[in-house]
Amino acid sequence: MSEQEKLEAPVDGDWPPEPVGQVRVRLLTPTAVADLRGPTVCEVDTPEQAQAQIDKLGPDPQVGDPVANEERFVAGVRKRNVAIALLLMDQAVVSGIGNVYRAELLFRARQNPFTPGRELPEEVVRALWHDWVHLMSIGVETGQMLTMDDLSPEDLARAMASRDDRHWVYHRTGLPCRVCGTPIAMQELGGRKLYWCPVDQA
Ligand SMILES: [Zn+2]
């Protein structure tokens, strides 16, 4: 613990930055800091326990065989009588989508968030997976959860600078849909706020 405390001691006035929000874990080096905010679960495991948890996780676009990953996702979604917006947040179905990407993926696919997985056509589920792979690669490249494609250079600069200009529906309750102008709806689902357009995603 003393080592950790020593690292936490500010080298100067700016380092390390103050934690913002519900920080449950902070990984800190002399030059970098990573905060884990608001996780559903946060526990300290042995290596064996950690591996058992990893074995339970659904596919991750950045890990393993791309074809096998897609098939696991499609099968995992299409056998469940659970809303797709909940399945996308289920770590056993797919790893790491999180609240921003679930709202944005469903808008981009123009899918009703409440449709049960097993009622979704196979091609829709495959398209969701491919879009997740696509958005994830943009996220890794840019370091931002950028979910709007084909932006003009000015719009891209704005999106990179401001979260409010980066998303279709996420965090836009009551604001006009960027496509149809309908106010964006919001409701708690799975303990997290879900955003969607009631017209484009009817
Ligand atoms: Zn709309």
From TrEMBL:
This is FPG-type domain-containing protein. Pfam families: H2TH, zf-FPG_IleRS. Residues 168-202 form the FPG-type domain. The keyword Metal-binding applies. SMART domains: H2TH (SM01232). InterPro entries: H2TH_FPG, Ribosomal_uS13-like_H2TH, Znf_DNA_glyclase/AP_lyase, Znf_FPG/IleRS. The keyword Zinc applies. Keywords: Metal-binding, Zinc, Zinc-finger.
